[in-house]
Amino acid sequence: MAPSRVVALDIGGTQVKGGWIDRAEASAPPAGVLASRTRTLQTDLSGGTAAFLDSVAAFARDLGYDGALGVGVPGVFDPRTGALERSANLPALDGLNLEEELRARLGKESILALDNDANAAALGESWLGAGKETSSLILFTLGTGVGGGIILDGELFRGGSGRGGELGHLVVRAKDSATPEEEGLRCGCGAYGCLERVASATAAKRRARAAGLPLDLAHLARRARAGSPAESALFRAVGRDLGAGILAATALLDIPLILIGGGFAGAYDVLLPGIEEALGERHYGGSPLRVQPAALGPAAGWIGAARLTYPAL
Ligand SMILES: [Zn+2]
């Protein structure tokens, strides 16, 4: 029998977020109602991987799991094999075949659909969020790192092996010489000057420390809004680097809608002057670029993960 409901999860480094969509509302569920259903489970790997996956499966059942589950996973995920190859936020899960592990816990007839968490968020925004009026968008998710997802002509762009749309690893600062400052720009991927080394929340904190400012970004953003010069300059600099990443992505893809999401997107308004400064330097013509905040907030990932299951329902 067809599942009466789709349950979906967004597995993150500190929390697993989840929710559900009932079959009766599946064709056009109201985004606000879905977002209000977001439930959370603490990500706890202290008892080992197996115990964590048991808790994830139990969480899915608590949400009313009935045979269909979508999951956004944090890291390089290969949708062809179901394996999470590398996870910067949850290294304990590196190399794990999440699809097989969840199937073993939920039953072999389960309809499971998994993808990278930022891909899932991009799909969510495209389906019910800030991108629902257009067929293509690029989502940058700003948090501990920078993630990204690309929706091209209505389809999630995964690339050749699931690594497409890794916007955080666009190189926006070339390495000139190995000064200590540049050593700080070395990314976990091995390259220098990746977007996530200069435009993530982590990067903003590094700049704050260097400027002798406190590291509470929400506090710094409030100070910037109030016109404080040091904080305004910090967010402007981060915004400029984010703008460089946006320029790089749009030069390649010519997609005119850019969404900014993730936890650090709460600083969108104070990042915007720097973003606009960077974008204003290029004159290509063509369709005007629209940069705007994502609409679904922390629910984007699980909502998009739910949508991942639809082709199999
Ligand atoms: Zn990188």
What is the strand and helix layout of this fold?
Layout lengths: L4 E7 L3 E8 L8 H6 L2 E4 L6 H14 L5 E6 L2 E3 L4 E4 L11 H9 L4 E6 H12 L8 E6 L3 E7 L2 E2 L23 H4 L11 H5 L1 H10 L6 H9 L3 H25 L3 E5 L6 H12 L10 E4 L6 H9 L5
Parallel strand pairs: 1-4, 4-7, 8-11, 11-12
Antiparallel strand pairs: 1-2, 2-3, 5-6, 8-9, 9-10
Helix pairs in contact: 2-3, 4-11, 7-9, 8-9, 9-10
The site of zinc ion (ZN) has 5 residues, from loops.
In short:
The protein is an alpha/beta fold and 313 residues long. The chain has 11 helices and 12 strands.
How would you characterize the overall build of this protein?
With 313 residues, the chain is α/β, with parallel strands linked by helices. It has two domains: 5-122 and 299-312, Nucleotidyltransferase, domain 5 (2-Layer Sandwich); 133-294, ATPase, nucleotide binding domain (Nucleotidyltransferase, domain 5). The protein is 37% helix and 20% strand. A five-stranded mixed sheet has the order 3-2-1-4-7, sandwiched between helices. The protein has a five-stranded mixed sheet with strand order 10-9-8-11-12. A two-stranded antiparallel ribbon has the order 5-6. β1 (5-11) and β2 (15-22) form a beta hairpin. α2 packs across α3 and α7 (201-210) packs antiparallel against α9. The radius of gyration is 19 Å and the shape is globular. The termini are close together. The mean pLDDT is 93.
